[in-house]
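QA checklist item 7 of 12: single-chain prediction sanity check.
[x] sequence parsed
[x] length recorded as 767
[x] structure emitted
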Amino acid sequence: MNDTKTISTTELCWIVSGMDCAGCAAKIRNALERMPGVGEVRVSIISETLNLQLEESRTSRDKVEASVRKLGYDLTPAAADRAQPDAASQEHACCSADAQPTSGSASASAAHKHGHASAEGKQRWYRTAKGRFVLGTGLLLALAWTTKLAVSDAIAFWAFALATVIGVAPIARRAVAALRAGMPFTIEMLMTVAATGALLIGAAEEASLVVFLFAVGEALEGLAANRARAGIRALTALVPKTARLESDGGIVKVNADSLKVGQVVLVRPGDRIPADGEIIEGTSGIDESPVTGESVPVTKETGDAVFAASINTEGALRIRVTRAAADNTIARIIRLVEEAEASRAPTERFIDRFSRYYMPAIVGVAVLVALVPPLLYGQPWDTWTYRALALLLIGCPCALVISVPASIASALYAGTRRGLLMKGGAVIEAAAKTRWVAFDKTGTLTQGRPAVTDVVALAAGDAEVLRLAAGVEVGSSHPLAEALLAHVETEGIPVPAATGARALAGLGMEAEIEGERVGVGSPRFATQQGAMNTAAESAIAALENAGKTVVVVFRQGAPLGLIALRDEPRPDAAAAITELKSIGVQPLMLTGDNPRTAAAIADQLGLEYRASLMPDDKVAAVRELAAQGPIMMVGDGINDAPALAAAHVGIAMGSGTDVALETADGALLRNDVGDVAIKIRLARTTMTNIRQNVTLALGLKAVFLITTVLGFTGLWIAVLADTGATVLVTLNALRLLRFNPTELPPSMPRKSRTKDAAQRLASHEMR
């Protein structure tokens, strides 16, 4: 008898307040990962959330909450939790739609989470805990200075000492909590040691000043973090709170969160669309800038999809809801950005590992500075102890630790505002190194709206060829099938019933119609089925030479006729290819279409191509190119998903299938091929920003380490060096929020700069 024990785990999610930088997240993560039964700890600074898996039989959630609170952070449950077997795969965020047991709870959780963040962000700085800490320590310091001026230095010493003790007490509590959690080398511990040591050697005035400057630095970090969170708060606020729902009693005003799939809403001119949906009546211009960043309204009519938060600029629309509030485009973007921000880039992981050795090394150097000169050379103990304490403060790696995540977070939001989604820092790093960009053809480089241009009858009339083809393709969502069905509907040809339909990836479809097996697909498919003759081959060659895609309709091993379709290149595709070349990236087209049609499109756009590729052939091509350098794959269909996954960076067009969007590492919500170059520019600019931050953090510390050991700078300069470096790094990272896609990345070859500027100017004039 096999007696297996099922371990029950619970997925928990909290809102955590008081986190300002990656160091805060690292403290929480490191403390919790040491606790038994705790796994998959994910901390997001921007969304202020903590997610983890917990075996409550080993550690209670109360102990988890107590551990976080001891570190100086407050937390409240953000969503309903659920118990599930350990063997089951867990979702990545308990606040996500998929992790909720009931409909509506996800949106409630999201509203709770972002509402909380919004409330925190709207607080005046002096009403926050860190703001009160600044005012309190500042008041104590001012009173001590007043005592020094009005009474005497001896009494002032005790006033400064009292100010130091009161100010350092909450810092010391957090330091002890971190020590108990197995983290002895924290900024709180260094501050506590430095302030206490300064009191012991008689430097009470500097000790109180150091505590005050530390409080100011924490408050500034909080302000910077709130500014970074503003992007998410603004995005969430774009979705209207109410909707006009059609019901039996007329139009009813309801909460947008309560809308269900299939319901119909009325959207008046000037209103924001309350949910993702499909227009069932009306035509209007839709401003999609909240979602895609494109400010020019797009005309949409019956049958077109619309996004939540978009603005209806002209006529009234009736819209059928296609996604619940928890799964609309805005909610998915927010989840993607939050998950991306919580994931760590390779550079960030390296710096985390580096800081684990760096901190003990700095403490060791400080100990040597305090002991060696007095013991070996008879130097004054108080002088070298003072310098050692200053060294401890300068050595704190706060600025270094936040140098990468601050830049990554800013880049994610800068991209999101322009419809450029990237799933984390690892994607940004890989995109910055891109040397090849492989494009799918249909729906990516072309408009994805092919139209029937020719019908060639071979063994049946035109109408019969179209009728049978439509019967086979009626269940397909492929762009060629949709074009064929639209043409048949326009011609008024009845579509016969089909059974046993079967799709063959990269080849075509077949089904049984009126008792006979009918195939519709590529010339390769027809050849494999023995349904090709000389007349068909000759006609196919002529059509393909004209840049058209040919579909063969066959039955019982004989071709009945040919249907030719043509899909025109996107208007922006040629300029996008030129732009990629100008920044040193080589574009390439990978398509399952025939070589002649592929050549016609490739020649128009000016790029290399590989044709007649099955899905596994695309994967092989991507892997072959990857051996020559980092490659980005851009596609939009189900057939592209394997190649997207195989590339260093997979990018899905915003109009692509859900499979492509889920598989990809990012998306282009505007469906603009030119955004590929902008995404690479943003990634390169971000990596430059990260290098600047690391240089700034290490450079300032190196300078002040030397000046402190030599006695030129003291404790208050030391804390300014640490706090100042942290603030400068954060402010430098926030510059990415003003990213200008027309600026040339630093890595662009000099010889292409003038040419690139001229091309951008010409492109702008054409628009």
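[x] summary fact logged: DSSP finds 26 helices and 27 strands in the chain.
[ ] second reviewer sign-off
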